[in-house]
## 1
Amino acid sequence: MASGIKDKVAILGMGCSKFGERWNDNAEDLMIEAFVEALEDAGIEKSQIEAAWFGTAIEEEHVGKSAVPLSMALRLPNIPVSRVENYCASGSEAFRGAVYAVASGACDIALALGVEKLKDTGYGGLPQRNRGSINDMYWANASAPGSFAQLASAYSAKHGVSKEDMKKAMAHISVKSHDNGSRNPKAHLRNKITEEKVMNAPMIAEPLGLFDCCGVSDGSACAIVTTPEIAKALGKTDLITVKAMQLAASNGTEAQHNSWDGSHFVTTRAAANRAYNEAGITKPRDQISMFEVHDCFSITELVTMEDLFISEEGTAVTDVMNGFYDADGQIPCQIDGGLKCFGHPIGASGIRMIYEMYLQMQGRAGERQREEDPVFGMTHNLGGFPHQNVCSLTIVGKEGA
Amino acid sequence: MDVGLLAYGGYIPQSRLQRSEIAKAHTWFNPGLGGLAKGERAMANWDEDSVTMAVEAARDCLGDLDRDGISAVYMASTSFPFEDRQNAGIVADALNLKSGLQTIDFASSQRAGSAGLSVALQVAKGGGNPILYTTAEKRQTKAASPLEFTSGDGAAAFLVGQGKVIAKLIGNHTEAVDFVDHFRGEGQSYDYNWEERWVRDEGYMKIVPAAISALLEQTGVDASTISTFCFPVAARNVAGGIAKKMGLPESSVADNLQSNCGETGTAHSMVMLAHALEQSSPGDKILVASFGQGCDALLFEVTDEIKSLPARKGISGYLARRHAETNYNKFLAFHNLVNLERGIRAETDKKTGLTTLYRNKSMAQGMIGGKCSQCGTAQFPKSNMCVNENCGAVGTQEDYPFADRVAKVNSFTADRLTYSPDPPAYYGMIQFEEGGRLMSDFTDIAPDAEVEVGMTMRMMFRIKDYDDKRGFRRYFWKATPVDAANKGE
């Protein structure tokens, strides 16, 4: 029986670029920005990094294929570098690669870096692109908002929640995230918004309006990981360790088998059970201190809080409206502003989420620092569509917790 | 044994463009168009062409009939989507017909619609299995042309053969006259028309009577016994004038559907024939004539078998499935008659790998999925491993057609972000009642339609994507509400 990843790997240093419309920077510039911060934070030399993982998804819009762009941007000394792509979990996958490498003993110090340049398309929203030569023959003409919007219609139908109540809860989620983002200097969108503004915004994909959708940004984030022993030897105290890393990929059941009702994420539930088990967490609603979930759309966050077993099925609307997930609520969700305010430079997002957990646990989150000392932080990425996706979960926490 | 029609079917697109809206746009330029401003014309959706309409008419015609018994598919049109790729072959493929099949396209004349049927009937005289005959038209017309007002889009289909015919062929005759009332030369998109008065006096009123006279003489049928006279010309009083000249009863002159459909080009004589059959009784004599470089005249007698023909939508059913379109700009956009800013999202390359298409043809054109012979789970697309998590058997998938099955909506959206020629793009998860599901594009969702979870949908054969760079288009199936489709039945 495998013992899992818990406490085998510690975060040595992290960095995160400013997210936003980085009109004057190439992906390489963003990578360097995140890397320099991480390396300084880690307090090591570049030459001590033994392997690297590079996460990016829509490489044709910026760096092109392979891991070479990372190796060249950072002038890495011919170490092994791998490029990973797994939809919106690409950043988390880079992190997983580095963490697993250290845990296996294959190397002492490893790097994960994610980047994406999404603002060179000439229009708003994610790039419109082909989905594979066979898929293009029969897949619906679906955008990301249109795919996720359907969660709302299925959820409403299943739980008997009126369209108005759904829309209000979704609005609360976005208002909350903008409040949080307004306190984060690295966030792309730093304006506060009102429920009224959300409710009256132009429709993107029914029932998702403009403010139900996350921003589209350029950005990069970076993590350097090692073993707790080496971290301590390097003089680090109060370590933040990896408690769990789980991934679940759809197998066609949701897309092709009539057992799924469209109101939740099959993969998130599967990965969550495994992640809590790996981290030794038995009562997540009581034990997890904060979440960074994949709020690509407000409805995704709402449904996800049930799939992570925090809100009971059918009750997320109530929890959301009660402020349970607000910055000063029981369990803050997107205390950094989330995808909503950071935008979603695909390869960077997963690592950006861990970065916030890392800052909060070290008491370095500035204005938005949670008063109550966080113990376990959980991040969640959801890549693809509700009916066929990958879900990546990471739990980090204080060493020994 | 009697030769004739074994079944009929029809198809008219859902949208009916109000002619008053076309007139509003153009009478400043040509006040004479105001006289055509009455009624409405059938307007194909952006994802329809003559092939997709022919498929729908053919499905209406065939119903539950065994398709393996079909020996040939003929299709007539002057608006084929492909100049070199057999269009009848696409129709046959969408219908999942066997490959041991004769397929032929008829083109190049407004008389092609009736000529194709004449040939099919001639072939049927020699025996053999029935022929599926389809004809459809989506005519390209210039903005502010009279044809833009009087044309409509539509299709008809007939099963032609021997035996239990619903309408027996009594006789047919063709006059071939190179009378050029209009033409469309090589590489041209639009027709060039000559003066209507000349066409009427020297064309319709002389060539058509010659064909009808010859037919009546040959068959020994008295003109006064004709029950229905189908003559597809938009101009008023032409059919009536011919009837009078020929001694056909005044009451026999069939509605040319000008008020609620428009003239469906080369398909229109056949659309009118299908419409006439819907309203006919055993013993009725139906005379169909059509004009174009001469005239075809065909005479049928309706038999008792028509009473046992299963119900179908037909032309009347599809005319009742109607949305009144008041946005003429949409028509202009669908026909590329205006240089619309479609946005950068529209630039995505829609190239189709012909190897990929051929390998996946039964999935992409026939909507054939799979059914596991071990656990009975249906799935789309078919794969070599069963999707049922409790089964997962390898190599157990048997062909399982989905196109004619109904499904219920599980979830849906109306998407204004993704590029669609007719935003918002509606799509959603549909679940087939006997198993299987698909995240499917929806089509023919009228602006005032309410889409709901649980709604019943049926599939329609449509254009999935246009590859304008290479002049290709790929087809697939889309879901449309059943209730709307049944309205008026």
Note: Chain A has a mean pLDDT of 97.
## 2
Amino acid sequence: MLDTVFAIERADESHVFPAEIGTDELREECLARASIYRLLAGVFVEEPSREFLAALRDEALLGQLAEAGVRFAPDFLATELDELAETLACEYATLFASSGGFPPIESVRLTGRFKQDPNFKVTQIYQAAGFALGKGRFEVFADQLGVELLFVAELLERCAAALGTDQPADYRRLEKDIKRFWTQHLGLWVRGYSRLIGRASNHSFFREMAKFLGGFAEEEIAAMGLKRLEDLDMGRVVVPKSEIQVEFNPDEPVCCGCPPSSDKPIGGTGNVHKLHDLRF
Amino acid sequence: MEMPKVTRRTFLKVSAGTGAAAAAAPRLLTAMENDLGGKDFGPVSGAERKAIPVNCHVCNIQDGAIAYVENDRVVKLEGNPEHVSTRGRLCAKGNSGMWYSYDPDRILYPLKRVGARGEGKWKRITWDEALAELTEKLDAALKEDPNTIMLKYGRNRTGGSIDRFMKTLGSATVVNHTSVCESSKKVGMEPTWGPDIETPDFANAKYVLNFGSNVLEASYFHNPLSQRVTEGRVDNQMKIVTFDVRLSNTAGFSDEWIPVFPATDGAVALAIGHVILREDLQDSDFINNWTNVTVAELKAHYKQYTPEWASKISGVPVDTIERIAREFATTKPATLFTYRGPAKHLYGSYNEKACMMLPIMTGNVEKKGGYCLPRGMGWPQPMPEPGKPTKDSYLSHPPDYPLAAHKVSHLVPFWIAEGKQKINVYFTYQDNPVYTNPGSMAVWGKLFKDEKLIPYLVSMSPFMGEETALADLILPDCPYLERWEPESMPNSLWPWLGIRQPVHKSLGESRENRVLLRDIIHKLDPDGKRGMKQFWDFKDGEDYMRHHFDNVPGLKEAGGLDFLKKHGVWPIYGKLDPKTGKVSDKTGREIKADYGLYLKELSATDMAGATVDGKGIISKNGKAIGVRRDGKNCVGFPTGNRLINVRVDQWAEYGFNPMPTFKRIPWHEAMKDDDLILSTFKLNVHKQSRTAAVKWLAEIAHSNPAWMNPETAAKLGVKTGDLVRVESAVGHLVTKAYVTEGIHPKVVSIPTGFGHWEYGRLATLKLKDKKGEYSHGADDPDLNNVWWDDKGVHPNNIIPVVADPIGGSQGWYDTVVKVTKAGPNDKYGDSEGNWEKHVAAYKETMRYAYTGDLHRKMHPEMAAWAGPDSVKHKAGGGH
């Protein structure tokens, strides 16, 4: 989807990058990728600012995005900029920053709660790489989607610097760091999550950018040759009830009180116990 | 030497037979993760986890807890073994407390409403923006009248900062939640013996009368008292008799469960008292020496309350009443405990008073194994303190309820709607009346949706509860594991001071309440010229705690706040013995409580300049300070005259019976054969409104079928699981039936804490309901593991307001309903209340106030009372 616009070649999955690619080209590619990461981070890290939106509505960029399959509706294209920023701020709060929404946070997506293992692990990774998380307009978690994307952008810019200063060993190390980060973090959740936001958003901006994120993620994973990287985000995977091991009867109509309806089997596994003698 | 040939297969075969030998081999290594007593270790890493003592605040028992933290993340909660009351144990709720911190529906940033109230559309704004908008509203309100700024709180454990905030603003409009909690219990007790609660010494009692408390599961003070109930039962062969409409687990644990007709506990208690006095089983010395009535007066007064009279009203057989009376009076020591059962009725204060008379007349007060005064500790407030507001507030001190010392919060919406007091800015803190109050959405939802009545609603909350969802501005408060708070609860016979302290950094941009309030004041008065800032001169929550704790005598010497930060509680009375589960002193013996507090002698300094009247009342500077008995100058009880006031003269001023009495609820007398009374109750893993989103608890219990007796169910043709329609005078609901012998045949009972329509994804199961909707879009990692589809049905919409004219309590268990099999148009979860009908109920209950037309009719014995105009109101002010 993104090949044309962002010049990311579909890689042979058995290779990291095509061997024939030159250093300058590789450097350009790193910078191009970094700019996409930054663009996407700008969408998700906090409410998009008026300036960000104005830049996004640049005709040339819109054209490139359209070629990549990102097609905004009039709610994004034909709305006055201040009003658009306001509308998107509300949509952002609904989707990402208020109760009942879908916080773009790895801990929430993978463990169902804020500030769990992924948060601490990415913090350690940032620190090891020499980064500290600052505050934007709002304080965000280290495993917030925008922050994770910004981290990769930073590493890609370092890659470009390494290539520009003829330090291939550093480039390779950084490249591995990026792959590791994708394997351990982004790759585990952004694809499913992007599909979820694509479905949930009311506004074409977030809907389309979520699709863009999903496509970009698929592309990056393929380009980096990351195999068998399973998306663990439950936004994609629905666990069938039959696979859930529970102590009680999952088809029970009234917890603790009522027998199951006759047309449904009780449970399905040997470890399911009726609550008959445990009610209240 | 030839070595045996061991392949993987052969050694696995060998291992199959090694069980006994392996078990018998010495074990020199023990997993430290299994250690008890204030330590915890990662099961994989083996590394010791950081242990931070706190006071639990999932409910309000205030158990001592320890949070184990790894990497700034709470991984486990358990009891604090140094806490004298709870002795290292936490209940299921307490073990689940960390889910509040990490709830994915938690509000982490200030949110401003952008759609219609309740529409669910928000914009995240910065704290600067939020405070600027809020202080603009406050400024305008202050110019008009400070009392137009209202703050209503639910579970307020700030230790004084809420009051400080409102006093700083000069507003007296502070309303609590106590009238839906247990205010008539408090008001039944306070004028009689001083404190608002008792401490039954269950561990040493031989006999317990339990009126309407479910102490093994839910009531005050569940965890510490249930430990003592169990000890009393196991160590002391204590007998327990429980009067309750429902077979709670406490009733089930009792020797006898006596299902009593709702609201008639007081009549049973009076009849027990009648038998005790008739058969001369009372403790005459105690009555004559320590109460304001004589035995003769008491006998004369109780003569009217015969077992036959009580039996007819309550359904408890005469011989049962007589037997229990004899058992209670002759088994020493004996104690009594009550909770909402007697108190949450139209005349709940009378019921409570009638119950507490039993340990009083048998002399079980302040005895080992008896009915003891609560033990608590206080702490000083940071100085300087703001003064009391100059003008009183109607809503805080409604003139129709002058004896309701804990306010009448559940009538507030009607008073606001009637224009009794104008509100410009409404703050809510840890409250959720839209869910928890009678009338629920039909009443409070109606109030909050009316922007003329409530022009600006500010919620200080970490969660999107039913009330917060209607706010204009949400300021993200911190859950309890991120707050500094002082604590003391009289939940055992040993007084203690404790703290809550942040166990990890607060998430997002949430701010603990006292800091948030400080920031509002600082924004209002940045340079201190308005005289407000001086009262909020502290750096952070810890600094505020130093003002509380660094100069408490005894604690100061132990290290003040630093001691509490390390131990969570002070004093440390001894060491928890893992074999007995009790606290032992240095000799290994269980620590002993002090009894007979009222017998403590006054010092010579206390007596200097004191006078003693003919009745032995010791006074100094115009105030009673003690009672002289048998030549000893005793401190007495913490009442105005240092005696137990069996006769409460203040009640008589307002035309209420000053002596122990009982009033039957008029509409209960008029019930038809097929009418039932609706009661509610709590399950052991939930509290009223704030646990449905706690995942461990929600998985254990998440729905609430209506309990019905088989006799009732048979008449209706209903069996367990069938849909029933429950209809009251103000609305109806449709739920499922649970048919059980464990409920009085005239009662239908529905547990509370379920059926949320807000409060997050687990409480509402909204993501399941509304797949595809914009704000609740699709799959969610947690909900995919939710195996239940039923969130329950909340009953409060159909419960009308009833106010005890004395104590102000809501009559939760007074609602008459008709239960029928659900009709073709009824569907599970229907719940509808009608505002106009609720208003009619409000008007009806006001008729019972001392100013109402039914007051005199209900009190023919007070015919000599000169009427409401004879009462002069005291000038009010402040909180």
Note: The first strand of chain B starts at residue 50 and ends at 55.
